[in-house]
Specification:
Length: 311
């Protein structure tokens, strides 16, 4: 009976996968209303999908092959919500992906979590000698929820790590900018030179801001947009200092050196705070592991002697 139930579950999973393959195949794929009327509304002929440019994230091909996944992504967006938060994090990450791309990745992570949870439940059932359908379903649901939330957590971690890298690169960029401006270069030329030499996350962000400025946007506006996207207070102060110096004609080199010194001091404070937190964390093994063992070694000979004397 146990093997029968396990075989039925495996057959159900195989049937579900086969159904997804059949419904996602081109003959059974539904055509939306927009695709039907688009050829009659366009003046130019519609290009072939084989030569159409795909999205940078690579989701376009998968999205066309699996329309059900796109519907699931839309459902996750409705249920989970937080689209504005995801959009802000993508802007802070300076990523070209959209909220729909992140939702699609959440679908993929959820599918992986569902499969992993079901496999773990099946293995645990086989090891215990009996199939518990409730445990398998509970682990599968836990993997599903963990996949959806895990992708959102990983996006937050990506933003945090990028901010840390930008703060690490910031003092060097500020010093090089001060050196270039002191040598007589214009602010825009100095920014272009330093961003090309330094590279990294901050250098790439400056290059994108300069690219926006070359397309017609004012340099001050493009730099402020970069600072607002990063949400880093030192970088915002740095950009404000550059903008004020450019608009009012104040010495820019002194402002850049002062900003670099402030960031270095803030980095020292962060190191001291991290050291304080680590010091408190180090007390946990000392109090709960080392101290009980020390007390046990100190009291055990006396307790052993008392037990022997009592006999």
């Amino acid at each position: 009976m146990t093997m029968t139930v396990l075989g039925a579950l495996l057959g159900l999973v195989a049937a579900g996968g086969l159904l997804l393959i059949i419904t996602g195949a081109p003959p059974a794929r539904t055509i939306s209303l927009a695709d039907r009327i688009a050829p009659y509304l366009r003046e130019t002929p519609r290009p072939s999908r084989l030569i159409a440019p795909t999205h940078a994230s690579g989701r376009g091909t998968l999205g066309r092959l699996t329309p059900q996944a796109r519907r699931i992504a839309a459902a996750i967006d409705r249920w989970v919500g937080g689209s504005e938060s995801v959009r802000r994090r993508l802007v802070a990450l300076d990523d070209e992906r959209t909220v729909e791309d992140i939702r699609f990745e959440q679908v993929v992570w959820a599918a992986i979590g569902l499969t992993t949870g079901a496999l773990v439940g099946a293995v645990m059932s086989l090891l215990s000698g009996q199939v518990v359908v409730g445990s398998i379903a509970l682990l599968a649901v836990a993997g599903l929820v963990g996949g959806v939330l895990g992708r959102d957590w990983w996006l937050t971690q990506q933003v945090r790590r990028r901010d840390e890298r930008m703060l690490t690169e910031f003092p060097v960029v500020a010093d090089l900018l001060a050196l270039a401006v002191t040598a007589g270069e214009a602010p825009q030329a100095a920014l272009e030179r330093v961003s090309r030499l330094v590279g990294g996350e901050l250098g790439r962000s400056i290059q994108r801001a300069l690219a926006d400025a070359k397309t017609g946007m004012p340099l001050a506006e493009s730099l402020e947009r970069m600072a607002n996207a990063s949400r880093l207070e030192p970088l915002s102060r740095f950009i404000d200092g550059i903008v004020v110096a450019m608009e009012r004609g104040t010495p820019l080199a002194d402002v850049l050196r002062a900003q670099a010194a402030d960031v270095r001091e803030q980095g020292k404070r962060r190191l001291l705070e991290a050291g304080g937190r680590k010091e408190v964390a180090m007390l946990v093994p000392v109090v709960f592991l080392v101290l009980p063992v020390t007390v046990l070694f100190a009291l055990f000979p006396g307790l052993f002697s008392i037990i022997q004397l009592s006999r």
